[in-house]
Amino acid sequence: MAYPTVSAPYGLKPVNLIGGQVFAGATRQMEIASGYATSIFYGDLVKRITSGTIELDNGTTTATPCGVFLGVSFTNGSTGQVQFQQFYPASQAIKSGSKIFAVVADDPDTLFQVVSCSATTTVAGMGIAAIGSNIALIQNAGSTVSGNSQVAIDEGTQTTTNTLPIRIIDVVRETATGADTFVEFIVKINATMHQYNNSTGI
User: Fold this and answer.
1) Which of 8, 44, 127, 178 has a CA between 20 and 30 Å from the CA of residue 54?
2) Are 100 and 31 in contact (CB under 8 A)?
3) Are 75 and 94 in contact (CB under 8 A)?
4) How would you class 63 by CB atoms within 10 Å of its CB: exposed for 0-12, middle for 13-18, buried for 19 or more?
């Protein structure tokens, strides 16, 4: 049976919750500071900062996110129209007095599907023994065409280090490229690195 080919990473995509609970689309609105100068794409990790707003979390081995970005809304400064977008464009000009609101999957129990890469966007497989490991991220720039992230997990960095940001929960068998070679994985934000589980706060 032919399985679909995974040709590139697409960020972190929510699929369900720990224990097989359904991800019902529950999210939280979080504010992005007006004029924030970094683009954020669907599937990117984000973190709260001391101003109360969020920004892109581009950490690889030390990310401390509060969740995953799933879109944005703002009032365009030129047209005055409310826009709903897949990604936040860097330095977006908004209507004076208005706010930029991101949609964030912030439940620490959320499980995400993600692609394994060996370098930038080069898809690379790992075996079933990767399950249970912690792993680093590859922070590729997202696509302004699709609006999607291209963040991936970093094949070869799987280990027991408790400060790595991602925990591997399972493999995706439907896109396996061999008997024990998997290119997509089910992961969660490592409990010790999720901002909601950080006892010291921001």
Assistant:
1) 8
2) yes
3) yes
4) buried
Tens of pLDDT along the chain (202 residues)?
456 789 999 999 999 999 988 888 899 999 999 999 999 999 999 999 999 999 999 999 999 999 999 999 999 999 999 999 999 999 999 999 999 999 999 999 999 999 999 999 999 999 999 999 999 999 999 999 999 999 999 999 999 999 999 999 999 999 999 999 999 999 999 999 999 998 888 8
Amino acid at 188: K
Which CA distances in Å does 172 have to 39, 112, 115, 177, 178? 29, 11, 10, 11, 12
Dihedral of alpha carbons 27, 30, 34, 38, sign: negative
